[in-house]
From TrEMBL:
Residues 249-433 form the Carbohydrate kinase FGGY C-terminal domain. InterPro entries: ATPase_NBD, FGGY_C_2, FGGY_N. This is Carbohydrate kinase. Belongs to the FGGY kinase family. It comes from Sphingobacterium griseoflavum.
Amino acid sequence: MGKARIPVVAVFDVGKTNKKLFLFDEHYQIVFERSARFLETEDEDGEACENLESLRLSVFDSLHEVFRRDEFDIKAINFTSYGASFVYLNESGRPLTPLYNYLKNYPKDLERTLHEGYGGVAAFSLQTASPALGSLNSGLQVYRIQQHQPGVFQQIKYAVHLPQYLSFLVSGQMYTDMTSIGCHTALWDFENKRYHQWVKDTGIEQKLAPIVKGDEVFSAAFPGSTYKVGVGLHDSSSALIPYLLNFHEPFVLISTGTWCISLNPFNDEGLTQEELAKDCLFYMTYAGTPVKASRLFAGYEHEVQTKRIAEYFNVTTARFKNIEIDWSVIESLTQDRDIPTELGAFETVDLANFASYEEAYHALMVYLVSAQVASTKLTFSTQPVKRIFVDGGFSKNNIFMNLLARHFSDMEIYAASMAQATAIGAALVIHKEWNSQPIPSNIIALRYYRA
């Protein structure tokens, strides 16, 4: 008899830059990992976009590789990827167009026509809980195809978001999941819990695959396979799942990276005009309940400003990696002055004001955290939050975490670390389909910061 095979779940985590495949064992330890990067290709306008064909081949390649390995028994497969990207499939499941980049410029006249037909941009954005973001409102991408490429639109059997396309490759089933509809797509009417009227009126609703919850699984399309296939999840919503399953008291998660997204799953109070203007929106959990969210481009701002400081003081940006907080510097920077809450405020600060790169960096963090606090507060509601979890890049930043704890002195502030939160979320959501053990309570490592 050979060695017993390890029961595992396979999760594809498809980011803009890195495409990863993980195998998790029943204790959510990574037992196998494979990473790939592809060259981008171009759409018909010569703009850079994801290479769908490379992605498709890579999914099958990686699966073949892990299925060949005797030590693993793959029980289930799931997918998570960035949102706001539609794949248009014909009757036989072939993509009809490139995977357009969600940063592609959107024709202003089209956007205006749509908004004006449904009460103007403010009312439209409020109903769909989607700030007007052009192509980032992925529903508008489908509208553009309908208006500008009617021949292609006619051939579309279903338009599905990227995570569901990946799932379809393995299950042969086309479905729509709630977390993908829920991320600023401009498709969903949050008050009436259905597609917005414009989606019906334009006939686009018929091109959208049937909706299922995020914990849905299907059988594999390959004869003789016994593993289950998840429907796939939008990455920001996936990263929230481990927290939802572990913590039941009201909390906010600040997921930090290029964007810092504050997510409050305990607030479903409607958006106001002012909140929308400040980049608030709703996401949805895998079960279809709303999550109030606010976005701040803080990781990007941090990168730009640390470069500026490094150049001015003639040091490398590596110097900023492990700076510990110096409270005396913080006191001198913040005493008797109001720190602006606008994200870009630091770029007008003259670096000649600072004696050293450490002092300048402390000042940058004071400004960044001030903007972050204002952004996170937008997600608060009448139900008081007891804890704030920070994961991603800033959770490892000593100054950021300490300043945040000082601002929110009446709450518990934790730096949360979990290797591959997004992928683990996609594994956890289908836990019962592949795992014979209870969900472990120690998946998330927490570090407490005192005010």
